[in-house]
Design brief:
CATH topology: Cyclin A, domain 1
Number of domains: 1
Order of helices and strands: HHHHH
Number of strands: 0
Largest sheet: none
CATH architecture: Orthogonal Bundle
CATH superfamily: Nitrile hydratase, beta subunit
Distance between the termini: 38 Å
Helix content: 55-70%
Shape: globular
Strand content: under 5%
Length: about 110
Amino acid sequence: MNASWGPHDIGGQMAGPIDLSEHDIAHWEWQIDAMVRLALEKGLISDFAELRDGIEQLSADDYDRLSYYERWAKSLAYTLLSKGAITEQELNGKIEAIRARQEAEGLR
């Protein structure tokens, strides 16, 4: 693989079968979609293509391990951090609040 390419660009190499089965979209996946659309509406990102940069910055391990919406979430966080729209401290605080709420609700 060319050193300038990311894990998303396999350049014609075999990647295995693509799962085309339908699945119900989880509530958190809808939330990620809504956050991306809200960031667009608020002018925090200019278009969906802008988030590709964040996805292309993922390590090969993260790219392989993360689901579609997890990649979008990580990319949105990367983009908003790099633009100064949020701080790492704010992001970490929100993540901890969500984890605490999930634990309290028995979801973790």
